[in-house]
Amino acid sequence: MNYLTYLPVFDKLTKSQQDTLTSSSFVRKFGKGELLHNGSQNCTGLLLVLSGQIRVFTISDDGREITMYRLFERDICLFSASCIMNSIQFDITVTAEKETEVLVIPSEIYKSIMDVSAPLANYTNEVMASRFSDVMWLIDQVMWKSFDKRLADFLLNEASIEGTNILKITHETIGNHLGNPREVVTRMLKYFVSEGLISLSRGTIEIIDKDGLEKIIV
Predict the structure, then answer these.
(1) Where are the beta strands (DSSP E) in 31-139?
(2) What are the tens digits of pLDDT across the range 126-150?
(3) CA pair distance 73, 53, nearest whole angstrom
(4) Whole-angstrom distance, CA of residue 145 vs CA of residue 130
(5) Cα torsion angle, 127, 34, 150, 201, sign
(6) What is the 3-state secondary structure (H, E, C) of 112-129?
(7) By C-alpha distance, which of 185, 106, 107, 202 is closest to 151?
(8) Residue 137, H or E segment
(9) Per the count of CB atoms within 10 A, which of 50, 88, 205, 208 is most buried?
């Protein structure tokens, strides 16, 4: 199977361009927690997610993490190939949250085609705009939304992603996603427990009252 057909504009490329992308791209598999890209690797390549789940995050000078966005099957990670974007540099880290398989499209190949293909250039700009929107949403959340709302929203989203109300996740991991110290997460989770919204056990959070969490967000 040619996974490049996952790209919405693949059929709008010339046969030569399609062949170039196909012959240069390759599949890589990553285990849970494995690093796909870090800030010192300017051009890992574009990553097309074939299966699994990846997390894109940034790390502060003092080592605190915050998730910028997450990518799933058929999503493309553009900022792992920042060299294709003139005057734009992102110091991001990309890791696999689950067993993950990606198609790696070499940056220089993608850029050479994007420079002469309006459909691919337009598609790239659309993806870039979408990711910038994700980042702006994150900034808005961090600056203006209280932590209880952010945490409630995270728990509900996590339950939706995993398809279960029983979440196998640590307080530290949640803190890394939300950019807050583990102690802050623990205090708020204990408050949720006192309100009958969740129950806690070692490495596990069970959502008991979804409606209650949703009311916090509103």
Answers:
(1) 35-37, 46-51, 54-59, 65-71, 76-77, 93-96, 100-105
(2) 998 998 899 898 999 889 999 999 9
(3) 7
(4) 21
(5) positive
(6) HHHCCCHHHHHHHHHHHH
(7) 185
(8) helix 118-144
(9) 205
